[in-house]
């Protein structure tokens, strides 16, 4: 039996486009964390899609375009608190919840995010 990555099991690029579109709609409207996202929404969504592709076991698209993710270093210029991480996770949870996949797969997908979100906290 062939082992499929989480990226493949959730639906690949199509699922990540749905996820990033919904996630950033929520983030850009969120009163606490919208301040962290000041550049072009489409550019931010594309970088996130590339990163998530790689993060979830798909092709190494982010590294091919932007180099090693170094996510903590890339986020250091922004003040990120624990409250910001919680808000980010709430937005991600809502976006994951809207994906047309089984609950168990939604849970597995969301479980990939808390550790990374709290790793970005720098204040």
UniProtKB/TrEMBL annotation:
Keywords of the record, alphabetical order, are:
Heme, Iron, Metal-binding, Transport
Q: Which GO terms describe its molecular function?
A: heme binding; metal ion binding; oxygen binding; oxygen carrier activity
One matching Pfam family: Bac_globin
Question: What InterPro entries does its record include?
Answer: GlbO/GLB3-like, Globin-like_sf, Globin/Proto, Hemoglobin_trunc
Q: Answer whether the UniProt record assigns the keyword rRNA-binding to this protein.
A: no
Q: Which family does it belong to?
A: Belongs to the truncated hemoglobin family. Group II subfamily.
Protein name per its UniProtKB record: Globin
Originating organism: Dyadobacter luteus
